[in-house]
Structures are given as structure tokens and as C-alpha cells.
Amino acid sequence: MTEGAAKITIRDLEISFGANHVLRGVDLDLNAGKSLVVIGASGSGKSVLLKCILGILRPDRGSIVLDGENILRMSERQRMRKTAQIGMLFQGAALFDSLKVWENVAFRLLYGERKATKIARRRAIECLGKVGLAPEVGELFPSALSGGMQKRVALARAIAAGPDVLFFDEPTTGLDPITADVINSLIIEQVRALGATAISITHDMISARKIADEVAMIHEGRIVWRGSASDLDTTDNPMVRQFVEGRADGPIKMKMRKT
Ligand SMILES: Nc1ncnc2c1ncn2[C@@H]1O[C@H](COP(=O)(O)OP(=O)(O)O)[C@@H](O)[C@H]1O
Ligand SMILES: [Mg+2]
Questions:
Q1: 209-213 long-range contacts, Cβ below 8 Å, gap at least 24?
Q2: pTM value surpassing 0.90
């Protein structure tokens, strides 16, 4: 796909969980080869949005067009084939504790593409190398790794099948600033190497500025602002200002349980 062509086009996307109307008409456009960072308060539906595109959650209405095809109109099987081109780094790394590191990295190759063990293992070790981890790490279980190493393994898993779209859900949350910077650099390097289109979710403004070509803010189920990373400093949008400056007072209110 040529750079600049529409890669992902989302229109009027809605999803509710019972009375909780989470996405209330999301419109989002992303061109091929671009890196978009999505910001927004906890619980605003950022992870839900990515899960809708991945096909893990089924939206109530709207369209998600990937490479010109609406994946919500596809059969389950067609959609799974289409979304298999997306690599995902899940919030909190989400590695399988009972599988060795290399098996985690090779998971999709082993169980999705049914590749031979030897081939999958070689590919896993190659991907671990791309994120700066030695082959021996592949033999360990995730519980033996530091938080930063777990995120690297999760990144290796996300890139293992050579995806052309990559999603990163809070890749640096819980890491110290130096390790976070290493992860951000690896993300940028791997997205470039694959020529991938990327959507990242982060609360961390340093990461957002580093990773993003563009930033979109989600609030009350809709995209309320979009701009370049440098616009974060100059916009007078009160919701973006509140978020960037980390203030409790402003248009974004935390939902508190009334006692
Ligand atoms: N599978 C689910 N079933 C019911 N509610 C869910 C589910 N997934 C997410 N939610 C709810 O949707 C809202 C948005 O969640 P999420 O997208 O995870 O927020 P965040 O923006 O922090 O990533 C939250 O209120 C959450 O409780
Ligand atoms: Mg989330």
C-alpha cells in the first residue's frame, strides 16, 4: 500500500455495554504509514476502540474500513484473515505465563498459521533480537522478566507475523522513564522497518510527542480533537490543555461514585 492512501477509516462507531454507552460515534481516518497516538482519560474507550478494529469486540453500529473494505460486513472468517495483518501490543503486555518467551512471541505463527516448531522458534529468536533480547531469553518464562523486558517481548510478539498495521496499548505504562524511552525507540524503529501504520494509546505525553505524527483525543465516546504532536503545546482546546497539563479541574470530570 502506498504511503498517504487511506488505511483505516472509521465512521460513526458505537458500542455499549449495558447502560454504559462507551463509543458514541467515533470518526477516525488514518493514512498508510502514519503513526497516530490516541489520548483520553481512563475508561474513555481507547482500548475498546482498538478491540473493535481487531474484531475482539463487536460494535453496535458504524463502519470500520481497512484497505477499502468494511470489516464489519465481512464473514467471521474473512474478517479474521483481514485482521491477522494487525500486530497488537496489549495493555500490561498480557503474556501467557505458562508459555516460554519464544512460544509467546511465536504464538500466532504456531497456533494461527500452523508453522513448524523449528521455523516458528527461529522467527521468534530473530524478533527477540530486533528488540535487543538474547536467544537465551526465549527459554525463560515471562515471570522471570522485568517489566521492561516483558514489554520488549510483547513488542517482539506484535511484530512476529510481519504486520502492516501495529497497535500499542499503553506500551510504557508502569516503566521508569529511561526504560520507557528505550521501548519508544524500539517501537519507532520497528514501525519504520515494517513500513507499518500505527495506533498507540498512551497517557504519557513524552511518549506521545516522541511516537506521534498525529494525536487524537477521545472524550465521552467521540474524537474531540486532532492535531500534530507539536499542536499539543499550542492548542487552546480546553480538554487537550487539561490532559496535557494533568489537571483535575477542567471540562473532563472523573466519574465518582456518589455515597
Ligand atoms: N468487555 C467489556 N465488557 C463490559 N464493559 C467493558 C468491556 N470492555 C471495556 N468495558 C468498559 O468500557 C469502558 C472503556 O474501557 P476501556 O476502553 O478499557 O478504557 P480505556 O480508555 O482506559 O482504555 C469502561 O467503562 C470499561 O469498564
Ligand atoms: Mg485501556
A1: 210/181, 210/184, 211/35, 211/37, 211/168, 211/184, 211/187, 212/35, 212/36, 212/37, 213/34, 213/35, 213/36
A2: yes
